[in-house]
């Protein structure tokens, strides 16, 4: 009953068992396709922007890029989202935004991913354009219209408000809640 029960990782084993049985129940083949991933999260029938975002998340979870998320990839993703250190999460977010994989995020990439996230998470208190401009204004140190991984991590880590905003906007824990609690029946 002591404080040690709330320590992260304290109940990791039963939690893994829970995820494993959930994963195998939803996905008996052990290989989750993009279609099944969307179905599991109750995210079918999204607009093209939302679809694009979910595909990006799927591709990043699919570590070996075989077109499926297997249980180990699934657990690695869950671990990162729940227990990952902030710089690991920022690297993950960076990868998510860098749609063409060239190692830099430009305004168009950030705008399209934020628009997609708004389509899924609902309305936020600023438009995708305002959000994108604010981020570039704050952390594009050399004003070249692109953010490198280093600029992104340093910029976000040194700005408490921005860190909170990014963490909230791109929080995947609602996605994980769906996975933990079963499918949503109402959207």
From TrEMBL:
Highest taxon in the source lineage: Eukaryota
Q: Which UniProt keywords apply?
A: Calcium, Lipoprotein, Metal-binding, Myristate, Repeat
Any one GO molecular function term: calcium sensitive guanylate cyclase activator activity
Q: Which residues form the EF-hand domain?
A: 49-84, 85-120, 127-162
Q: Which Gene3D superfamilies match?
A: EF-hand (1.10.238.10)
Per its UniProt record, what InterPro entries does this chain match?
A: EF-hand-dom_pair, EF_Hand_1_Ca_BS, EF_hand_dom, Recoverin
Name the GO cellular-component terms: photoreceptor outer segment
Under Pfam families, the record lists: EF-hand_1 (PF00036), EF-hand_7 (PF13499)
Which CDD domains has this protein been placed in? EFh
PROSITE patterns from the UniProt entry? EF_HAND_1 (PS00018), EF_HAND_2 (PS50222)
Identification of the protein by name: GUC1C protein
The gene behind this protein is Guca1c
């Amino acid at each position: 009953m002591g404080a040690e029960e709330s320590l992260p990782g304290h109940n990791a084993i039963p939690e893994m068992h829970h995820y494993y049985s959930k994963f195998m129940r939803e996905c008996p083949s052990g290989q989750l396709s993009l279609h099944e991933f969307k179905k599991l999260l109750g995210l079918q029938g999204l607009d093209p922007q939302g679809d694009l975002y979910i595909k990006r998340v799927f591709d990043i979870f699919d570590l070996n890029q075989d077109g499926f998320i297997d249980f180990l990839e699934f657990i690695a993703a869950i671990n990162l989202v729940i227990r990952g250190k902030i710089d690991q999460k920022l690297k993950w977010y960076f990868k998510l935004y860098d749609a063409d994989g060239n190692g830099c995020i430009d305004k168009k990439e950030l705008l399209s991913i934020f628009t997609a996230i708004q389509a899924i998470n609902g309305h936020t208190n600023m438009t995708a354009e305002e959000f994108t401009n604010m981020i570039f204004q704050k952390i594009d140190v050399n004003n070249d219209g692109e953010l490198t991984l280093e600029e992104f991590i340093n910029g976000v880590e040194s700005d408490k408000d921005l860190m909170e905003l990014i963490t909230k906007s791109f929080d995947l824990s609602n996605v994980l809640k769906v996975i933990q609690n079963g499918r949503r029946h109402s959207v």
